[in-house]
Design a protein that fits this description.
With 382 residues, the protein is of the alpha/beta class. It contains twelve helices and 14 strands. β6 and β7 form a beta hairpin. The N and C termini lie far apart (47 Å). The structure holds nicotinamide-adenine-dinucleotide. Nicotinamide-adenine-dinucleotide binds next to α2, α6 and β5.
Length: 382
């Protein structure tokens, strides 16, 4: 099978490239280095050294004898993307190529406009290119659990049966995001649902929670193959940030009461989920939605877990509640369903002390690359 991975240079994209290459897929890795550009613009960088895609592909060839084809180009450039799809005829395309940070999208008008344009145009172009040039190709798009927000009812997997005035129908579950970034993910889902109905596309939309972890089976083979790993307020996800903060003895920045609850997953489970989604595609004309998380925690619970593991490394980790810069509910009901991927065969890898300890080891290895000034800047929603 041939698979195109868009956003291949990213935190999730690169390990996904290696995962599918290792499984014997023909992999085409696409990126325009947007993330490198915008992180440089705001003065933050990855904890792990991240060579350019071409060099990483060479390192993978040496480690595995497998070839990854690299294409540097912008998914928002329709000529580039449609040429690629027309000539390569992939069986599946994974869409990671978006601006993925909620705080970045709230920094100002320039950042909001970039997020909106990049995320929606990339999704529109993919739908069009697949419709025009490879209509049997399965589109796998990364959504986020943040699309649902924190409603006061159970969160279903994508769809909700509504009974109104004695009649019933299925609708997309009501969505109410709490950042512009998450709102673009809602709009992505709506775009794809429209084109699924109109053009009978095959789409899987994965509502993923914040991912944590520094390594996968393939990236562990060689330090050159490590994924990028951001620990700053703008691009770092919470568990990754807390581990780095512990290692450099920076008190864990818990926003407000820390009772905000979300679903999380280990980066290796992200790959397992993508593997299952690709192996078992949806039907023609189906928008299939999975909630891609394995367990839920409040921010306070995560901080406590990280603090406990810090003790194994003789670190006296402090937890500090700071004024919440975001506009979000702190105390809320949260009960998402996440059985779809488990029914396909997903084996959850839970947030054990052992897994967190491995993250500490990586963070300690690169301790001299930590810049404490980027850990908290206080980007406010209002
Ligand atoms: N990391 C998480 O915890 C998480 C959680 C939920 C959803 N997601 C989603 O998963 C996807 C990947 O996340 P990530 O953490 O790997 O982000 P990332 O920023 O590390 O990777 C995204 C990659 O896409 C590239 N890109 C962006 N726009 C592009 C364009 N127009 N053309 C070509 N390449 C482009 C960037 O340069 C970057 O390398 C995103 O869509 C994100 O919203 C991530």
């Amino acid at each position: 099978m041939k698979i195109v991975i868009l956003g291949a240079d990213g935190y999730l994209g690169w390990p996904t490239v290696l995962y599918f290459s290792n499984k014997g897929y023909d992999v085409i890795a696409v990126d325009n280095y947007l993330k490198r550009q915008i992180t440089e613009d705001i003065g933050v960088s990855s904890l792990t050294p991240t060579p350019f895609l071409e060099n990483r592909a060479k390192a993978w060839k040496e480690a595995s004898a497998k070839t990854i084809e690299v294409r540097i180009g912008d998914v928002c450039d329709y000529n580039f993307l449609s040429d690629l799809i027309r000539t390569e005829q992939p069986d599946a395309i994974i869409h990671y190529a978006e601006q993925p940070s909620a705080p970045y999208s709230m920094m100002g008008h320039k950042e909001a406009a970039l997020t909106l344009q990049n995320n929606l145009m990339s999704t529109l172009n993919i739908a069009y290119a697949i419709h025009e040039f490879a209509p049997n190709c399965h589109i796998v798009k990364l959504g986020t659990m943040g699309e649902y927000g924190t409603p006061n009812i159970d969160i279903e997997e994508g769809w909700l049966e509504v009974e109104h005035n004695g009649r019933k129908d299925n609708f997309l579950f009501p969505r109410q995001a709490s950042s512009l970034y998450h709102t673009t993910k809602i709009q992505d889902t709506d775009l794809l649902w429209f084109y699924v109905r109109t053009w009978q596309l095959k789409v899987t939309d994965l509502m993923q929670g914040p991912v944590y972890g520094t390594f996968t089976d393939e990236t562990s083979l060689n330090p050159f193959l490590a994924p990028s790993f951001f620990y700053d307020e703008v691009f770092g996800t919470v568990v990754n940030r807390f581990v780095v903060q512990s290692v450099c003895e920076y008190p864990l920045t818990v926003y407000g009461s820390g009772t905000q609850t979300r679903g999380y997953l280990d980066i290796r489970n992200t790959l397992d989920c993508l593997g299952l989604a690709v192996e078992f595609p949806p039907s023609v004309g189906e928008l299939r939605i999975f909630n891609q998380i394995t367990e839920t925690f409040s921010v306070k619970e995560i901080a406590e877990k990280v603090k406990q593991v810090g003790k194994l490394f003789d670190l006296d980790v402090k937890i500090k509640s700071i004024e919440n810069p975001r506009t979000e509910k702190e105390s809320h009901y949260y009960n998402p369903k996440y059985t779809g991927l488990i029914n396909l065969g997903l084996k959850p890898r839970l947030m054990s002390d052992e897994n967190l300890a491995k993250m500490f080891v990586t963070a300690m290895k690169y301790k001299d690359r930590i810049n404490q000034n980027v850990i908290f800047k206080g980007i406010k929603w209002n």
